[in-house]
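[retry 2/3] DNA breaking-rejoining protein: previous attempt timed out, resubmitting with same input.
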Amino acid sequence: MNPAGILACVLVAGMVLAPPLAAQTRARMQFAAGNDNAHVEATIRGKAYRDHVLGARAGQRMQVSLSTKGNAYFNILPPGSGGEAIYIGSLSGRDGGVDLPATGDYVVRVYLMGADASSNKTVRYTLSVGIR
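[retry 2/3] DNA breaking-rejoining protein: success.
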């Protein structure tokens, strides 16, 4: 393998093995009595991310929708995750859902990509989450 190929492998391995950054904001989402959904309006800036935490049971379905005019996406992380996602919004879209494999606290992590992240842009978003 040539030196450029080796360097590329080392860089990719470093990105995969690097520890996750600490969330700049972590907040619990609450459902109003009798409702199975909630929403929050917030902003995200640059390379920061914002974690929205919700409790759910194994076998339920979580449906998430992210509305934004920016380059924001969300991931869904299961209980105990070290950053591994069961839904990756940048690959699967800003509207999607998953059947939940375990009981516990799930994290919906909102983040920016591309020029919005690298230019430290502030982006407003609305996150809607339903659990049935």
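[retry 2/3] DNA breaking-rejoining protein: The chain has three helices and nine strands.
[retry 2/3] clearing retry counter.
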